Amino acid sequence: MCNHSTGVTCTIYPERPDACARWYCLWRRIGALPDELRPDRSGVIFALEKSSPAAAAREGACIVGRAVDGEQAFERWEATEAFAMFVREGSLPVWRVSGDTAILLNPGNQDVPQRPC
After folding, report:
1. Containing H/E element for 28?
2. Taxonomically, which superkingdom (predicted)?
């Protein structure tokens, strides 16, 4: 997460850089995701990222679900179903991240072991 994020909002939203203004989480990119998965409601932000959240893991595009409302957000049915959907799709690694812990749920088309951040 950006150092300007409070986990709920952006502290520099009115002056945010262009890259931030053009960025969309997967909830905004995938129309099939339910309204309950909106990050401010679910406590989880799903994003397509260019590199894995774990330092020792293989680099490349991946799907990352980050808890912004505490790890308990992963227990909500919306988050559980979203992770399951991304894992079933299977083409990209899927990571679950909370604080300093990153768990690989599915390696996608790569052989990447589960590693901590």
Report:
1. helix 26-29
2. Bacteria
